[in-house]
Structure formats: structure tokens, C-alpha cells
Amino acid sequence: TNPAFKEVLSRIESHEDCRNLPMISFLILPMQRVTRLPLLMDTICQKTPKDSAKYENCKQALKEVSKVHSQVIAVWAGAALTLQTHSWRLQCDFPALQPFPLVSSSRWLLKRGELTAYVEDTGLFSKRTSKQQVYFFLFNDVLIITKKK
After folding, report:
1. What is the rounded average pLDDT of the residues 79-95?
2. Alpha carbon of residue 87 to chain centroid
3. Does 134 lie in the same domain as 87?
4. Domain of 19: which CATH number?
5. Same domain, 65 and 23
6. Name one Pfam family in it (predicted).
7. What's the count of helices (H) and strands (E) in the chain, helices before strands?
8. Structural domains counted in the chain
9. 137 by DSSP, 3-state: which?
10. Domain boundary at 75, 91, 107, which?
């Protein structure tokens, strides 16, 4: 939303060193490389003769690269969930839960969505049922039901 930031970003992206690529491509590039490494290592292993001394080294390298790949994906997924949780925290009002730490490394979102809640209002001489749209967040350890802003 900051116009000065947009202007600087557009100037950087139009620089010849960036080859007119958007900033997002530079942010995604390291992840693409990490995901391609196991594929590349596997291809190298397939091309290495099985009776070669280098074959065992190749298999060990593939195992280690795959381990690093799995760790990076796990950290990336956790960071993405944390970012989403921060985003949802800003979108919803939780007045009664201000001290409640919604974002936590031990908490992750399982499901979210909009539901229709039927609220029963019983008066002295009448009983009414009304519909109310609510938005819910089901985490691994807590269920939060709220209204959208």
C-alpha cells in the first residue's frame, strides 16, 4: 500500500540485472533450487555405473540432499502456516481473547470456514430462532468461532 515502496520496487525490477523479472521470482528461486536438488542427484546416481566406487558416494549424497530437502519443506510449511495465522489474526476481532497467543509454534490450523449458527432466543412469551453467519478456525488444540469484520 506504500506508494514509495511500489516505486522503488518497480525501479529495481526494471533494472537490467533483474532482467525485468518480478521480485517474487527471486523469492521463489531458492525454494525451486532446493526442490530440484534431489531430482538432479537421483539422475546423477542413475547415470553412475553401479560397480563404480563413486556410486556409493552418489547414493549417500542423494540421501543427505533428500534429508535437507525434507527439512526445508517442513520449515517452509510451518512458516507459511504461521504467516496465514498472522493474516487471519488481523482479519478477525477477538476482543475476549487479547491475551490468548493465537500464533504459536506448537499450534497449527486444521480447518477453517464459514458456518451458519442457529441462535435460539427465548423470551418470556416467545421462542425465536435466528440465523447468524460465523467463521471458525479449528486448530490442533483450540476451536475459535468468530464473526467476520
Report:
1. 66
2. 11
3. no
4. 1.20.900.10
5. yes
6. RhoGEF
7. 3, 3
8. 2
9. strand
10. 91
- CA-to-CA distance for 75 and 33, rounded, in angstroms? 16
pLDDT given at position 72: 84
**pLDDT score recorded for residue 4:** 93
Q: How far apart are CA 3 and CA 14, in angstroms?
A: 16
- Please give the C-alpha separations between residue 1 and each of 5, 25, 66, 126, 146, in angstroms, as whole numbers: 8, 20, 39, 50, 27
Residues in the chain: 149
pLDDT for res 142: 83
Contact 135, 113 (CB under 8 A): yes
Query: pLDDT exceeding 70 applies to what percent of the chain?
Result: 85
Q: Which domain holds residue 137?
A: 97-148
Same domain for 82 and 101, yes or no, is no
Q: Is residue 145 helix, strand or coil?
A: strand
Amino acid at 80: A
Phi, psi of 117 (to 5 degrees): -100, 135
pTM score, whole prediction: 0.48
pLDDT at position 94 is 58
From 86, 85, 89, 92, select the one nearest 148 (Cα to Cα): 92
Average pLDDT over the chain reads 81
